[in-house]
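Quick one before lunch.
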Amino acid sequence: MPIDLAWLRSQMPDRRIEWFTTIESTMIAASRLAAAGAPSGTVVGADEQTAGQGRYGRAWHSEPESGLYVSVILRRRFPPVTLPVITLALGLAVREAIFSATALECDLRWPNDVLIQSKKCAGILTQLESSGQSSAIIAGIGINVNHSSFPADLSETATSLRIASGHLHSRERLLVQLLASVDTYCDVLEKHGREHVLQLFAHASSYVQGRRVRVEEGATDLCGVTAGLTDSGHLKLRADDGREWTVLVGGLRPCS
Ligand code: BTN
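Model of the biotin complex:
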């Protein structure tokens, strides 16, 4: 079923909501809207994306009417923080929203993966949109809600809230909860600073400390044990050869 836009608007009368039946990517539409001056909190969503974007130029599987595919425009007075810390704050928001709406417990895999039982149920893509004198952060969030299965190349690593719980979930209720949680964690970052967000993330994630992982970052491919976060929200890794690395953008995978 398409999303119930009238109900969504009735729940969030003050929020600008731009909804599409089908779109290439909500990131593109949100960037355009941000450049045109759309206010903070504006949400761009779609029932289907034909070219959903993931990190590292990957595609985001966007099955029609099954997931939440949204980009939120954020114009916040964050203290001097880097995009990684904002991504971590958004991960906390997604985790909290999923728990509030479904009672499912999620793990967070640095920097942007939301997992249930080690499989990915949601991802975050954060971009900076700068135009003229104003800038905005575009927070792209994809949540696998009611997918009953995934294409073969994803089936080992992806899950949905439906698969994890055994029943369907309201995308509308989850979205209302998600936007409230995004506001909450942006407020936390604004008021309490990045240290606090880093602590919350480290507490919520089983990947930040003492986890054996493989990191692929550009030409670098190494295995080691995670050793906490830097002040900028990057991940520290003690490699098997004893060297200390700071992982800037790479993704984490299991290491045999
Ligand atoms: C990732 O884990 O690689 C990030 C996935 C982000 C996907 C969302 S879906 C809504 C928004 N529009 C996009 O094209 N991508 C993000």
